[in-house]
Amino acid sequence: MIPRPFEYHAPTALPEVIALLGQYGDEAKLLAGGHSLLPMMKLRFAGPGHLIDLRKVAELKGIALVGGEIHIGAMTTENELIFSTLLAKHLPLLAEVARQIADPQVRYKGTLGGDISHGDPGNDHPAVMMAMDATFVLAGAHGERLVKASEFFHGLYDTALTPGEVMTQIRLPLPPAGTGSSYAKLKRKTGDYATAAAAAVVQVKNSVCVQARIALTNVGPTALLAGDAAASLVGKTIDEAAIGHAAALAMKICDPTPDLRGDEAYKTAMAGQMVERALRTAAARCAI
């Protein structure tokens, strides 16, 4: 099938984007990398009358160190995450995750903000953003507001973005000394969505865990923050017993949809395995 007719807009500044969203309302859709929206348009699951292309809006791009945070423009591509020397030094988990997304062709066009804003529980960045305690900058006609990643995802394709808003930036705190992180992803083949995946970020002092965050991919209607699982590690040595207990707690919050990747029991079990793998690797990286 082919998309229904639409009018194409290519603004060059953020105020133009917000003005177009205000002018066309529900008839407008934002185009970032296009890997989610365009297939939906071809199948006529989406039929916007106006398509607003964000590629020429320079202020939505770039990676910068600002105080104690890394600020990433929403239109920054997966490939730019992979080859950023700034991220390699301060937040290597982002490059690690980007390398596991789709294939090189997709990574050259797909954007961080587009991946997050789509609200797909199968996308990899939402869980990673939760685990890294990210904050999203959302801009609209009434100005900017900040939303924590843990509060952004409301349901399947449902996020905190309101009509007329656009995600402009992702802000991530620099991890304190003694922090290790990892993303473990089980998939059927290279480039596939995860059957189940887990992001883990832990901080260790004197062999004891002092902070932990764990989040899960594709085992619920949204990415899931496994708060009880992470809390169970604090004050303990991250050994096999602690890892196994955390994985069991993470499995309790899973509510996967059965599909060709597996049924509910299999996906839930694999989520536990991914938590274990991510925690082992993250703990080992605390000493590096």
Q: Strand share of the residues? A: 25-35%
Low-confidence stretches: none
Q: Strands of the biggest beta sheet: in what spatial order? A: 4-5-10-6-7
Q: How many alpha or pi helices? A: 12
The CATH architecture of the largest domain would be 2-Layer Sandwich
Oligomer: single chain
Separation of the first and last Cα atoms = 52 Å
Write the CATH fold name of the largest domain: Uridine Diphospho-n-acetylenolpyruvylglucosamine Reductase, domain 3
Shape: globular
Largest sheet, described in full?
A: 5 strands, antiparallel
Helix and strand sequence: EHEHEEEHHHHHHEEHEEEEEEEHHH
Count of structural domains: 3
Could you name the CATH class of the largest domain?
Alpha Beta
Give me some keywords for this one.
288 residues; alpha+beta; Uridine Diphospho-n-acetylenolpyruvylglucosamine Reductase, domain 2; Uridine Diphospho-n-acetylenolpyruvylglucosamine Reductase, domain 3; Enolase-like, domain 1; 3 domains; 5-stranded antiparallel beta sheet; 4-stranded antiparallel beta sheet; globular
Structure in words:
By secondary structure, the chain is of the alpha+beta class. The protein has three domains: 7-53, Uridine Diphospho-n-acetylenolpyruvylglucosamine Reductase, domain 2; 60-173, Uridine Diphospho-n-acetylenolpyruvylglucosamine Reductase, domain 3; 179-285, Enolase-like, domain 1 (2-Layer Sandwich). The protein is 34% helix and 26% strand. The protein is built from twelve helices and 14 strands. It has helices spanning 14-24, 37-42, 78-82, 85-90, 92-98, 104-109, 112-117, 125-131, 149-152, 227-231, 240-252, 264-285; strands at residues 7-9, 28-31, 50-53, 63-66, 69-73, 135-140, 143-148, 153-155, 158-159, 166-173, 179-186, 196-205, 208-217, 224-225. Strands 4-5-10-6-7 form a five-stranded antiparallel beta sheet. A hairpin with a 2-residue loop joins strand 4 and strand 5 (69-73). The longest helix is centred in the last third of the chain and has 22 residues, at 264-285. The protein is globular and about 60 Å long. 45% of the residues are buried.
